[in-house]
Amino acid sequence: MVEKSVVVNVEPGLQSGPASEFVQTANQYAAEVFLEKGNRRINAKSIMGLLSLAVAKGDEVTLLSDGGDAEEAVDALTEFLSKEE
Amino acid sequence: MAKVQTKDLLEQFKLELVAGEGGLEREFIMSDISRPGVELTGYFRYYPKARLQVLGKTELSYFNELSSEERIERSNRLCTDITPCIVISRGMDIPVELINACDESDVPLLRSPYKTTRVVSRLTNFLEAKFAPFTTMHGVLVDIHGVGVLITGQSGVGKSETALELVKRGHRLVADDSVEIRQEDYDRLIGSSPDLIEHLLEIRGLGIINVMTLFGASAVRSLKKIDYVINLESWDEKKQYDRIGMDEETIKIIDVDIPKAIVPVRPGRNLAVIIEVAAMNFRLKRLGVNAAEEFSSRLTKMIDQEKTSVDKGVDYD
What we know:
The complex is a heterodimer.
Chain A: E1 2-7, H1 16-27, E2 32-37, E3 40-43, H2 47-53, E4 60-66, H3 70-82
Antiparallel strand pairs in A: 1-4, 2-3, 2-4
Chain B: H1 6-12, E1 16-19, E2 33-34, H2 37-40, E3 52-55, H3 57-65, H4 68-78, E4 86-88, H5 96-105, E5 109-111, H6 116-130, E6 134-138, E7 140-144, E8 147-153, H7 159-168, E9 172-175, E10 178-184, E11 188-192, E12 200-203, E13 207-210, H8 211-215, E14 223-225, E15 228-234, E16 249-253, E17 256-265, H9 271-286, H10 291-312
Parallel strand pairs in B: 2-3, 3-4, 4-5, 8-15, 15-17
Antiparallel strand pairs in B: 1-5, 6-10, 7-8, 7-9, 10-11, 11-14, 12-13, 16-17
InterPro entries (chain B): HPr(Ser)_kin/Pase, Hpr_kin/Pase_C, Hpr_kin/Pase_Hpr_N, P-loop_NTPase, Ser_kin/Pase_Hpr-like_N_sf
Family (chain B): Belongs to the HPrK/P family.
Binding site for ATP (chain B): 153-160
């Protein structure tokens, strides 16, 4: 299980556009990926779960991944969340 | 989990604030309730001061029999800086010593017009619900003929599409994709949707659709007890799937074991019908009719009969 905390840097947060990009990125990997905010954990490959969290810029989230390419998945998603536009 | 403060109680129930207004922001850290009877006699060693305190008729009438100094002393010891509030039931008159102590230490003193047992049970229910263990799960929750079915499975296996078909068949959607689950009591799981995505369903290729506006108010439901979990997974040729339905598998969610079935997915299998029937069969089992068991006992009987008739020899009469 790979686990990593990330501070979201996407402006202004994960709205529908960035959220679907995020989910698409997550879906490129075979590993299971979860995203945790507060006490709620959702599947990073599903857009509805991600949208329900209403992730804003500056929020701290945790990425968790399990499976063959877990490491790569977490790295790619971390890059996506922390890059500045 | 949201904080629970004393003022939430005041809003929720018909309580009258008598004293200690400064402490309305106090926070509850547990759901237990205490009735400080022994404490009033002066024994404070195990006084659960962080709990909500309820004083009923017995406690107050005993309190009134004490001397004035004792009343002041006990009141002061009851009102600690972490006591969330003191509730008096039956709308009784409150001794002035207690009111003063509450005002001094900012412990809210509330009065309810109802009987003690009623007050205790309603407050317990409220607090237990607020402090209930909570989790979120990836899946779709649908109410099928009154059975709360949580459909789980990998992303892209077809959960939302199945839910759409179920809604089309007249069942109700509770939550898509992310289900918030609270445990009530020790054996009930209540599922609901996160507020932001309530009534919404995501179908690949269509995007997000609103089930309530499309299918009407009867197609949605805001809360449902989870009775059954159906896990959809891609068909694995090497795996053994249940063919008779004798064993009941379970899955543990929070602290509750929920019956679970694994349904393999293959193109051409109508998942909605299978899940609908699974839910009906589940209901039937709960009503005491178990098709698999009945069949099995019939089979056993038949085999036994054949054995005995072979032993006796065949009767040609």
